[in-house]
């Protein structure tokens, strides 16, 4: 654990049931918003979009709708959204949805403020791949300040409402890469657990385990520190305590609130430290299969990943402590963490997930391992014990079914 850290968070957070109804009286960062959602029906069918637009109307803010973000936001969609925001004269972006929408919006904010300008003064859309890092992306600095971002989160999973990072996918190259800049941190976030009551059980589990794994990975990361440890301990305890109830009793507002809190803590954790190779490996899985939910991929490989770290005796004491935080007060060995993890997976009905259900084949695993290590080196660099290509393949094979 490091005894020094750098921590920054500029996001004003409205947390709690009913907080969406306070959006219209906030000091918003502009007068014309690009409102961004997915192409799905949930935010419209459940009335969340209408409610959000009504709050913008109350604040005197005009708006343009962009409802095209995919479950893993794609390069071309993010670029299109940024160009729409620019051409429509939007001066801020509002994300309404889960982690994919919020991540996509961070890219949209960068693209909108940085059009390409030809010698004759004409403008064209900037490719978000200019700013994304790793793989075939250019990793250029973002010249002009991105548009301000407001997030209204409808899921408990990524913590993207309070951090400055995003993950963007490119179908053409089977890549899922990172975008990051402190200026991409949202200026305002509404975390209203009432908006999460309608998330189906299976998706609640996928998203909730993602929130849990942010805390778990940041707790074992080799760049952990006093600040990240404090946040991780609370994140693990709250996520583990609430997740099964949220899956099996989705209308339980208290449990939804507790899981939402764990989710937001996950964003703070990634500001203070960082996730590990388990996340890097899953990014490669969903880069090859864009319909694979991120949380589902993590669930399938988590046991093998953490067993590998336990076998390497990289941080035995941390695994014991996490088992205790997850509910086993008498935990005394690292294997108790695996037992708690498996118990929670069974309680949430996700212990039997199969890679083959998403079309993943065994002959892809080697390429996935290579992809992960090549495109997400920063995540693997946080592992408490280093992972070779062979190690990652072994983790994938141990998880495959």
Structural write-up:
It is a single chain. This protein is α/β, with parallel strands linked by helices. Helix content is 46%, strand content 12%. It is built from 14 helices and ten strands. The chain has helices spanning 42-45, 48-58, 75-87, 99-112, 201-220, 226-248, 253-272, 277-288, 294-311, 316-325, 335-347, 365-375, 377-380, 389-399; strands at residues 12-15, 32-38, 62-69, 92-97, 116-117, 123-124, 149-153, 165-170, 175-180, 188-191. The strands form three sheets. The chain has a six-stranded parallel beta sheet with strand order 1-10-7-4-2-3, sandwiched between helices. Strands 5-6 form a two-stranded antiparallel ribbon. Strands 8-9 form a two-stranded antiparallel ribbon. A hairpin with a 4-residue loop joins strand 8 (165-170) and strand 9 (175-180). Helix 3 crosses helix 4 (99-112), helix 5 packs parallel to helix 7 and helix 8 (277-288) packs across helix 12. The longest helix is centred in the middle third of the chain and has 23 residues, at 226-248. The protein is globular, with a radius of gyration of 20 Å. The two termini are 36 Å apart. The model has no long low-confidence stretch (mean pLDDT 97).
Shape call: globular
Radius of gyration: 20 Å
Distance between the termini: 36 Å
- Average pLDDT number: 97
Approximate helicity band: 40-55%
Order of helices and strands: EEHHEHEHEEEEEEHHHHHHHHHH
The beta-strand count equals: 10
Trace the largest sheet across and list its strands. Answer: 1-10-7-4-2-3
Which oligomeric form is depicted? single chain
Helix vs. strand class:
alpha/beta
Instruction: Give a quick account of the main beta sheet: strands, pairing sense, barrel closure.
Output: 6 strands, parallel
Report the β-strand fraction as a percent range.
5-15%
Which residues form runs of ≥5 with pLDDT under 50? none
Total of helices: 14
């Amino acid at each position: 654990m490091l005894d020094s850290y750098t921590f920054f968070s500029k996001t004003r957070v409205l947390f709690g049931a009913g907080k969406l109804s306070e959006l219209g009286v906030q000091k918003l960062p502009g007068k014309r918003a690009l409102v961004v959602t997915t192409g799905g029906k949930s935010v419209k069918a459940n009335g969340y979009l209408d409610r959000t637009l009504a709050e913008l109307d109350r604040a005197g803010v005009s708006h343009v709708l962009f409802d095209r973000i995919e479950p893993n936001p794609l390069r071309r969609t993010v670029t299109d959204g940024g160009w729409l925001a620019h051409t429509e004269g939007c001066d801020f972006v509002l994300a309404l949805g889960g982690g994919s929408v919020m991540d996509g919006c961070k890219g949209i904010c960068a693209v909108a403020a940085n059009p390409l300008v030809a010698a004759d003064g004409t403008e064209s859309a900037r490719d978000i791949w200019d700013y994304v890092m790793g793989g075939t992306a250019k990793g250029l600095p973002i010249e002009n300040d991105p548009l301000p971002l407001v997030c209204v989160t409808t899921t408990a999973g990524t913590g993207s409402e309070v951090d400055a990072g995003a993950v963007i996918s490119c179908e053409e190259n089977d890549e899922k890469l990172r975008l990051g800049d402190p200026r991409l941190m949202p200026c305002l976030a509404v975390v209203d657990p009432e908006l999460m009551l309608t998330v189906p059980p299976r998706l609640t589990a996928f998203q909730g385990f993602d929130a849990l794994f942010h805390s778990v990975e940041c707790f074992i990361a080799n760049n952990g520190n006093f600040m990240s440890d404090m946040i991780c301990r609370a994140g693990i305890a709250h996520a583990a305590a609430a997740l099964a109830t949220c899956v099996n009793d989705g209308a339980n507002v208290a449990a939804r609130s507790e899981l939402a809190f764990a989710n937001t803590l996950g964003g703070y954790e990634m500001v203070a430290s960082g996730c590990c190779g388990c996340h890097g490996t899953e990014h490669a899985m969903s880069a090859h299969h864009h319909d694979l939910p991120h949380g589902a991929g993590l669930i399938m490989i988590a046991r093998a990943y953490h067993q590998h770290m336990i076998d390497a005796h990289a941080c035995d004491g941390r695994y014991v402590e996490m088992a205790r935080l997850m509910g086993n007060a008498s935990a005394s060995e690292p294997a108790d963490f695996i037992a708690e993890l498996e118990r929670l997976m069974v309680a949430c009905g996700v212990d039997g997930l199969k890679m083959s259900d998403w079309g993943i084949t065994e002959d892809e695993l080697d390429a996935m391992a290579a992809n992960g290590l090549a495109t997400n080196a920063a995540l693997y660099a946080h592992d408490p014990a280093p992972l070779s290509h062979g190690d990652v393949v072994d983790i994938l094979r141990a998880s495959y079914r």
